[in-house]
């Protein structure tokens, strides 16, 4: 079976957007938002991709000649008050996290009658999902995976320290700053992210099919450790090119995640160190209290 079958690009679940009527957002108290015309300043280029709630284009700054990425969210898709609050939350979170080298930085927010536009750093390297697909073996060496995973953990810790839980960690949301190189990753898409205090617990199903933590699926309370689960799934994929918990349908995938039985099939895991498998097993524990924390993972022998 081809690797692609095991690693499909999937959309997140959790928030729903539909076309019913137009809402006008009020960003007037938002210092980074500008009501001057987006078109006066920028020109949209090629489409880079679309997400649940918006389309991302390359965008050219006519004044500075710089190229950025622009996420355009159609206002007609923001139906209920919560939809608007969610966009505001995403912007707010991106502003709070801006400045970290491994986070896609938000430059400006524009709003006109039809769209909210987020002008962001452009990552020319595409996303990690595509990067894995272009690798010859559809998986990374332990050396490369370690380098990438270390950056991922550090940026997850940064989010958590700043009171933010991402809730949608997956290869599609990890961009590469430059093409063909895993040396600098950039975390993006904070559409499912929210604030969380130390010791606080959240409820509500957010995430993406193969990456969502079992405690979220079972409707239990969860916290930052749910992001660590998703990071563990990503590590498994980096090393093997396959998802650890597979089902042909969403339902059977969720059953596999809740059962949390890890398998390391001999191809390719026989070629991968025992230490890597030990680390993955300790991260992908279905019990949040037993799951390694980010600092514990960084301390694991495989990470050295
Ligand atoms: C914007 O600021 C004004 C005055 O500072 C305040 O009265 C108003 O409630 C604020 N609006 C929003 C949406 O926060
Ligand atoms: C942008 O490019 C145009 C055309 O190439 C050039 O005339 C202009 O000086 C450039 N502006 C900046 C700020 O580099
Ligand atoms: C998250 O929950 C786990 C298990 O309930 C707990 O052990 C851990 O301390 C919590 N983490 C934070 C940062 O509150």
From TrEMBL:
Keywords: ATP-binding, Kinase, Nucleotide-binding, Serine/threonine-protein kinase, Signal, Transferase. Gene3D superfamilies: Phosphorylase Kinase, domain 1, Transferase(Phosphotransferase) domain 1. Residues 42-303 form the Protein kinase domain. SMART domains: S_TKc. It holds the Pfam family Pkinase. Belongs to the protein kinase superfamily. CAMK Ser/Thr protein kinase family. SNF1 subfamily. This is Protein kinase domain-containing protein. CDD domains: STKc_CAMK. It comes from the Eukaryota. One of its GO terms (molecular function) is ATP binding. CIPK serine-threonine protein kinases interact with CBL proteins. Binding of a CBL protein to the regulatory NAF domain of CIPK protein lead to the activation of the kinase in a calcium-dependent manner. Residues 1-18 form the signal peptide.
